[in-house]
Each structure stands twice: as structure tokens, then as C-alpha cells.
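Protocol step 4 of 5: obtain the predicted structure for the target chain.
Materials: sequence only (see below). No template structures provided, no constraints applied. The aim of this step is simply to have a reference model before the mutagenesis design in step 5. Sequence pasted as it appears in the construct record:
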Amino acid sequence: MTIIKLRPTCTFDRDRLDALAAIAPEAFADGKINREALPESLGEHLEDEGRDAEHFGLFWPGKRDARRLASQPSAGALRPASGEGVNEAMTRHIFIEGDNLEVLKLLQKSYAGRVKMIYIDPPYNTGNDFIYSDNFRQPVEEYLQATGQANETGRVLVTNTQAGGRYHSNWLNMMYPRLRLARNLLETDGVLWISIDDVEHTKLYEICC
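Step 4 output (C-alpha cells):
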């Protein structure tokens, strides 16, 4: 079996930037967006600033950072564990173990728009679920242990209690980048199944729409 190491050389936002550059090339300079030229190139299609620009939607503290997190390339790579699989030379199935956000990023290049069905069972945010901050500038296990979010065996210890001022925001910031990356993987007729209870059902529905 040929072993191919997948590296994070591609982000889904690259395709979006290329599409925008094709539509409004004057908004780019040296391969980057010119913030002053972009509004001019969009003209009447750009929403006016000020109070009249307010609109209905789901907003929460940290949403901008959550959106940015989904766009950042992974710092890791998928490594095959030869000899641990079943019928490795013939099987067409892949089992991947790792942090789900990092794995979703790594799958973007090879599987964007190719997945028929995704099923997820995220934390229900009941106050006892394991929620941790997404910061991968150091290895995940090392980061969790250094911040007291996991013990020496790797078990995550942090909870998201209702006593916290950002009880719902913490959960949304965890879910948003993962849902966005999962959506990128789906085919046009693909489906996403999610198990959830009433605590975050409404907010989950809104960020999926």
C-alpha cells in the first residue's frame, strides 16, 4: 500500500479568494486584498455603514475569532499507522484518530465536496461536557496539560458551567469552525446529521442555516 502524507498546504478560503480575485481583480495588490479598493469594487452591493446597516442574525462574543480559526491551516499532518488496520492493501475505508478540528482542516484538500454523509455527536453543553480552547501553537496534548485542561493520561478536565459569563458563547465558538469545515466536505446533495438536546438546539439550528 502506497503511503501518502497529507500536509496542510491548502485551505478552503484559498478557493474563495481566487474566485473573488477573478470577479474583482482591482481589489487585490500583491496577492492580498486591498481593503480600501474592495468596497469601491463592490459598489452598490456593499451594505452601508452606520445604524441602518444593522441586520438580524446570530451574533455572540468570539464569533469573529471562531470564523478566523476555521480559516487557519492546520499545523499537523496525518500519519499512517501501518500494521494496525484490517486488510490494509484492499480496504477503501479510513479510520482517523485526532482532534476533530485539526483533522477537518487536513481533510479539506483531498475530500472537499466529496463526502455524502457526516454524523456528529457534539457536547450538549449541559455543564458537564468537555470544552477546551482551540490553541494549537504547541502539541494538543502538551497544551491541554500545561493549561490544566487535561491530566497526564490525556483526559480532558475542563467543563463549561452556566456560572461562566459566556456559557453559550463558549459552546458556539467551539462548534462554529467545525461545522463550517464539515460543510465544506459535503457534496451538493450531502447531509449532516447532528445529535443534540434542547439546551443548544435553537442556536445550533441557526448557525447551520
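Step 4 remarks: The longest strand covers residues 186-194. The mean pLDDT is 79.
Proceed to step 5.
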